[in-house]
Amino acid sequence: MKNFVRAFAPANISLLFKVMPHDDPAKMGSLGCGFTVNEGVTVEVSIANKPAIIFNGKPIELPTVTTVANKLTRTVLVIHIQSHLPLGSGFGISGASALATAYAANQLLSLNRSNLELAKLAHTAEVENKTGLGDVINQYYGGFFVKFVTSSQFVAEPIPISDIPVYCISYGKLLTSSILNNPGAIAKINHAADTGLFQIKQLLSKSTISLSQIFTIAKQFANDSSLLTSSRIMNTMKGIETRGGHTTMIMLGEGIVADIPFDGATKLTISTAKASVLA
C-alpha cells in the first residue's frame, strides 16, 4: 500500500442555476450552466494518527471534505489540499476538494468504489453542508455543460466551447448557505433561471453558440435574480463592456468572469480536464 495518493479536480465556474430541492440530500441538486477550468485543487491523502485538513499549508475546517472522508472510511486521514484559487468565492473549490479527496482515499485504501459512486458521494456531502449544488457533476465530467435535469442524476449536455481564455476576479466570499437557507431568494433565483435555461436551449438548437451569448444570458440572470447587487462588481462590468467585452457574475461568489482581460484579473482557460487520480 502506498503511503499517500494524490488526485486532481478542476475548479468550476457556475453562470446560472436553479435550485431543485428534495428531502433526500442525495437527490437534491440544481439545473444550470457552467464550465470547468485548467486550475483546481490537488489533494494528497495519507493515513495518520490524528485527522487533519490542510489547505495551502494551513489547518482548516472543511465540513464537506470531512463528510466525504467519514462516509468512505473509519481510517484516520490527513488531507492536504493545494489550490491557487480561493475557497468560498464561486470557483467550486469545496466540491473539487471533496471529489479529489474521495478519489484519492478510494485509491489509497483500495475501497474499489467507482468514480461515479465517489462523485455522487461528494455531491451529497456538498448538499448536506450547503456548500454547493451543481459543481461536482461538472468536475466529474470536465468541460462546459448545461443541466436540464437535476445535477444529482449526473446527466449534463455538453456545450461545444473549450480551450478559450477567461478572466476572473474575486472580491471576497459569498456564503452559498446564506442563499440556500432563504426561500424567498430561491424563488426569485429559480424564476430567473427558467428564462435563462430556455434561452440557452434555444441557442443549442442553432448551428453555433458563443461564450459571449452565454455570458449575456447569465448576466441577465444575475440581474433578474437580484444576486447582482455589488456596486464594485457592476462598475467593473461596465468598464469591461465599454471596451467591447462580455462579462457576468460568478455564482455564487463576490466576483466576475469576462472574455477580455481587465485590471486585477486572473487568466484561466475553459478546460475539459476532469477529476482524476494522479500518478
TrEMBL record:
Keywords: Kinase, Transferase. HAMAP family: Pantoate_kinase. It comes from Candidatus Gottesmanbacteria bacterium GW2011_GWA1_48_13. The keyword Kinase applies. Gene3D superfamilies: 3.30.230.10. GO terms for molecular function: ATP binding; kinase activity. InterPro entries: GHMP_kinase_N_dom, PoK, Ribosomal_Su5_D2-typ_SF, Ribsml_uS5_D2-typ_fold_subgr. Residues 68-143 form the GHMP kinase N-terminal domain. This is GHMP kinase N-terminal domain-containing protein. SUPFAM superfamilies: Ribosomal protein S5 domain 2-like. The keyword Translocase does not apply.
